[in-house]
Amino acid sequence: MIDLLAKHHHFPLARHLLDEMRERSVPISPQLILTLIRRYVRAEMPSEASDLFRRMEGYGAGAPDPATLASLLGALSKKRLASEAQALFDSYKSVFTPDVVLYTTLVHAWCRGGRLDEAERVFAEMQQSGITPNVYTYTAVIDAMYRAGQVPRAQELLCQMIDSGCPPNTATFNAIMRAHVKAGRSEQVLQVHNQMRQLGCEPDIITYNFLMETHCGKGQCNLDAAMKLLTRMIAKGCIPDCHTFNPMLKLVFVLGNVDTARKLYERMQDLQCKPNVITYNLLMRLFNREKSMDMVLRIKKDMDAQGVEPNGNTYAALIEAFCGRGNWKRAYTTLREMVELKSLKPTKPVYDMVLALLRKAGQLRKHEELVEMMVDRGFISRPANDALWKAISA
C-alpha cells in the first residue's frame, strides 16, 4: 500500500501508513524505507528522501548504513541530482568511512550531471583517501571525458587504469566506442574492438550494435561485413535486437536492395526479434519504392499486431504510397487519422501532396475540410486571400 500510494505521489498518505505501522508495532524493514526513499527521489523530492533516510532508526528499521546510503546516492544519480548526492555524502563522512562503492556512486552522479570537473575532484579525493578506484569508477570518468570531447585525457586515463592492474570491462570499451561512433570515426571503433579481443574482453549486444552501425555507416557502407557480423554474433549466443537490424535496413534502403530487405525481415521474425517503429518505417519506404503496395500494407498490419505505435514518419510513408498510386480516399483518411486521432503534425510536403491529389480528383470539399482541420489545430494559418475557400463557400 505504501509503495502504491508513493508511486502515485500520495506521499502524505504513505507516511501516515508508515507512522501507523510504527504505532501498532508492525515491523518496518529497511527495504520498505528504501522503497519509499526511491519514490521520493523519482518524484524529485530529494530533501524528503534524505530526511526519511536520517529517520530510519526512529522507525525501527536500523541505523543508516553504507549500503542504504549507496542505494540513495544511486537513485539521486539517476535523476541527475548530483549536488544533493554530494551534500548527503558529506554529511555522513563522519558517521562511517566512505568506501569504493560510495565514492564510485558519487563520481557517477557528477558524471551524469555533466560536471566532469566535480567528478574528477571526487575521483582525486578518493585516491588521496587511500581507496583504489575500481572498474566502474574508471569507466564513469572515461565515459564522461569522451562525452566532453576530451579524447586524449580519456585515453590517458584508460592507460592509467590498465597500468594500475584494473582491466577494463565491456562497459568501458562500449563507452569509448560510443564516442567514436557518434563522431563517425569508423577506424577507431574497429581499433577499440581489436583491443577488446586482445585483452580477452567479450563483446555484448551494445558492442555488436556499435560495430554494426560502423559497418553500415557512411564511412564504410559495407553490407557484406555487416552480414558476417550478424552471423558471428548469433554464433556467439548474442541475440540481436532491432538496433542490430536497423543500420542494415538503412544501408539496404540506400542501396535499393529490396530482396535483402525481405530476407532481413524474415530473419528478424525467425529470431523473434521485435522491430521498433524505425524498422517498420524503413521497410514501408523500401517496399513503396518498389511499388509493392501489398508489402507496405502487410508491414503496417504487422506493426499494428505488435502494438508498435506509429509516428509521423509512418504516416508519411503510407500517405506517400497512397498518393503515388492516385488513391485519394486512402491518402485523405490516413492524413485525417494522423491529425485527428494521433495529433501528429504532417510535414509540408506530405500535407501538400494530399491536397494536390484532392484537387486533381476534384474533391474540393474534402480539400477544404483538411485545410480547416489543420487551421483549427494551429498547424497552419489560412492565407488572407484564399480564392479556393471563397469559391467553395459561395
UniProtKB/TrEMBL annotation:
- Coiled-coil region list: none
Cite the Pfam families for this sequence.
PPR (PF01535), PPR_2 (PF13041), PPR_long (PF17177)
All copies of the PROP1-like PPR domain together span 222-339
* Alphabetically ordered keywords of this record: Repeat, Transit peptide
Entry superkingdom: Eukaryota
Identify the Gene3D superfamilies for this entry.
Tetratricopeptide repeat domain
The residues bearing each PPR repeat, given as ranges, are 99-133, 134-168, 169-203, 204-240, 241-275, 276-310, 311-345
UniProt lists the family membership as follows:
Belongs to the PPR family. P subfamily.
The protein here is known as: PROP1-like PPR domain-containing protein
